[in-house]
Write a structure and sequence with these properties.
Blueprint: H1 5-16, E1 21-28, E2 34-45, E3 51-60, H2 62-76, H3 86-103, E4 107-116, H4 118-125, H5 127-142, E5 150-155, E6 158-166, H6 169-182, E7 188-190, E8 193-195, E9 198-206, H7 213-226, E10 234-236, H8 245-258, E11 264-273, E12 278-290, E13 294-296, H9 302-307, H10 311-331, E14 337-341, H11 352-362, E15 370-375, H12 376-381, H13 383-395, E16 399-405, H14 412-417, E17 422-425, H15 427-431, H16 437-452, E18 456-459, H17 465-474, E19 478-479, E20 488-489, H18 490-499, E21 503-504
Parallel strand pairs: 9-10, 12-14, 12-21, 14-15, 15-16, 16-17, 17-18, 18-19
Antiparallel strand pairs: 1-2, 2-3, 4-6, 4-9, 5-6, 7-8, 11-12, 11-19, 11-20, 12-13
Helix pairs in contact: 2-16, 4-5, 10-11
Length: about 500
């Protein structure tokens, strides 16, 4: 394509300097069809270092690129309304926050809204009528937006609106909220019925009400439910509205002492080779034994840890504890690879690779026992930095897995170029794939894509024998989920290894 000629010319000029270059460009066939090609330029120099020849390689990547684009559309779009879903909304919000941080002067408005009395429509007219209402609501709401705004359906009758790059957050938010409320003045005509609906809107502003997604979403949710059945139909977040604010402050204070008091612990969920039925590994899952609240799941305290600056010591503890447990299992005759999900902020720590290496050496553990899991969104947030860390970890002998694959932006470039061993399919696609054709397509396409790129595939959330059997038919490599075992403390997992019908398989 003419638009790609400057890219090819720049790549050629770089190859003339002695550097190997790889690019992707388009070629238009005589019938008008566009095809994508990967081009690699291999320069050869004479004894004086002067480039005397450049060899080229062209590979048609159209099918793989089309598959990536289809996966992206299915994973980031609400099938009913065609709006972005929660995954894409989160990504847009991440981008907006990054831009606002760079600018230093701009604000972001986030609105959460749900429909009043929507359940009554489903109960009286049926879900098909409810679906039609949701589609009509989405059409009306689109008319209130700028091109740069994002309207998303989060599920059920809940919608979200992100307004980035705002100079005056409160006045802009109030104006847009009133426009949204006006969308509901006229009735919705469905199946010869005139339906009058309202909506409740909760509003937060970055950075006034929070500086990260979890905080903003949580506080917008608090504001939304606080405005139910109240005029004018929208409300800004205020701490007085949040019944959990004091609880979170106390929990953050308790978390600072959790490591010293030995309150953190790891549970392990086994991974099974679908072809052999052998146990090939496990995933380490952190828990907090809170002295008053009992066992807390990570979603209840990891966001607090990130905001409180505690994610580094917790990550170091998880990695060290996992390697120590791997060594104990290895000494007992169980050769397992255990995966640790490393949060994005930990990749900004320059000592991460050194700490992992020191833990392996200090415990005399083989690096093959450890797998690092990272989500797509973390990888794409700072590809250069994360890619370097992943390569350094791979040089130690550690394998890398992409967790929750299908929920973020899947780039063919990073799938091909980075040292990835495994793609883990997000559990919600597995759980519903028997009933949802889109989920089944995502699962099948992910398995095919991974195998074409020489990667392994593990399915999370395998809860039934039917899901197991279908994954086996589709050629999935591994599985984890309640059909095999719930996450178990280390001593119970060790007992499970000795008594379960699954055999220990060699590492791959």
């Amino acid at each position: 394509m003419p638009e790609d000629k400057p890219l090819v010319r720049a790549a050629w000029e770089q190859a003339l300097t002695g550097n190997q270059v790889e690019i992707e460009t388009r070629v238009q066939r005589p019938n008008g069809e566009l095809r994508w090609f990967r081009r690699v330029f291999y320069p050869y120099a004479d004894g004086s270092g002067r480039v005397v020849r450049i060899d080229g390689l062209m590979e048609d990547t159209t099918n793989a690129k089309t598959m990536i684009q289809r996966l992206h559309t299915l994973a980031t779009t609400d099938a009913l309304t065609g709006l972005p879903n929660r995954t894409l909304l989160n990504d847009r919000l991440i981008q907006a926050i990054a831009a606002a941080q760079r600018d230093g002067q701009k604000q972001i408005v986030l609105m959460l809204m749900d429909l009043n009395h929507f359940k009554e429509i489903n109960d009286t007219l049926g879900h098909s009528a409810g679906d039609e209402v949701l589609t009509l609501v989405a059409q009306r709401l689109r008319g209130t937006l700028r091109d740069t705004d994002t309207l998303a359906r989060l599920g059920g009758d809940e919608f979200a609106l992100v307004l980035p790059d705002i100079a005056h957050g409160r006045s802009t938010a109030e104006r847009v909220a009133r426009k949204v409320l006006q969308c509901f003045h006229a009735p919705f005509r469905v199946a010869h019925n005139e339906l009058f609906l309202g909506t409740s809107i909760g509003i937060v502003i970055y950075p006034e009400h929070g500086t990260d997604i979890d905080t903003l979403m949580s506080r917008a949710d608090v504001a939304m439910y606080s405005t139910k059945n109240k005029d004018p139909g929208f409300m800004f977040y205020a701490p007085v509205l949040d019944p959990n604010a004091q609880k979170h402050l106390q929990l953050s204070a308790d978390l600072r002492h959790a490591l010293a008091r030995d309150e953190l612990m790891l549970y392990y969920q086994p991974k099974i080779d679908l072809r052999t039925g052998g146990v090939v590994g496990a995933e380490a899952l952190i828990r907090w034994r809170h002295p008053q609240l009992g066992i807390l799941l990570p979603e209840m305290f990891i966001p607090l840890a990130e905001r409180a600056g505690l994610i580094k010591p917790i990550t170091d503890w998880v990695i060290h504890s996992t390697i120590k447990q791997c060594r104990q299992w290895h000494d007992a005759g169980h050769r397992l690879r255990v995966a640790v999900n490393v949060p994005g902020r930990a990749f900004q720590d320059p000592s991460l690779v050194g700490n992992v290496s020191s833990a392996l050496l200090g415990l005399s553990a083989a690096p093959e026992c450890l797998e690092i899991e990272i989500t797509e969104n973390v990888l794409m947030s700072d590809t250069g930095l994360v890619a370097k860390v992943l390569r350094d970890l791979t040089e130690l002998g550690i394998t890398i897995a992409i967790d929750d694959f299908g929920t973020g932006y899947s780039s063919l470039a990073y799938l091909k170029q980075l040292p990835l061993h495994t793609l883990k399919i997000y559990k919600s696609f597995i759980i519903d794939m028997h009933n949802d054709e889109n989920d089944a397509v995502i699962v099948r396409s992910t398995i095919d894509l991974a195998h074409n790129l020489g990667r392994q595939v593990v399915a999370e959330g395998v809860e039934t024998k039917e899901a197991w059997d279908l994954l086996w038919v589709l050629g999935c490599d591994g599985a984890q989920g309640f059909h095999i075992s719930r996450p178990l403390p280390a001593d119970e997992f060790t007992h499970w290894l000795k008594t379960s019908p699954w055999s220990t398989a060699p590492l791959q």
